[in-house]
Design brief:
Number of helices: 8
Strand order of the largest sheet: 5-4-2-7-6
Distance between the termini: 49 Å
Structural class: alpha/beta
Helix content: 40-55%
Radius of gyration: 19 Å
Length: 195
Amino acid sequence: MSDDDEVLPHQVLDGDRLRSLFAEVDEEIGLQGQPVDVVICGGAALALRWDGRATTDVDALGAFPRQFVGAMNIVGSRHGLKPDWFNYAASVFRPEGLRTETVYEGENLHVKAATRPYLLAMKAYAARLKDVDDIERLMAELGVTSSQLLPLINQAYDQETVEAHEGAINRLIDNLSAREQARRERDRPDGGIDL
């Protein structure tokens, strides 16, 4: 979804709404075939963990089985969601050795999400400025500083893959480091003023 696309209120997906939509997809899959396992990441994985976090789509890692596509389309259409409300475009960001945890367990739909360290590595690897707030919150939760991001990314992705994005990753890390420094100065007991 581009930043220019208008987001309508019914297209905003917070954790409660996602669980409700997953329940409907779960029911539809039950009418169509065998159970489906899906791994998600990105904003949807965070919306399921954080109150107040929402997204407009669900980024999955890997292609979808036919029965899942049918169920997803029926539910998306029923709620006026965009056709790509559940997509696998983020698959290009799938790290090696991905670890997951269950975020939704239905009878026919089992949704797992990348763990917080992997979400942080993925968002930092993608190096999009629009993800800075998510990255900083994940860093705070995990006790990670900007100087620890590149080693974390290198644990999740092979060297060649990281080198291909090195410029963008370094710009992101520089931005995060400057923000950390500004916070430290702002939060100094003396108000951050040197005489």
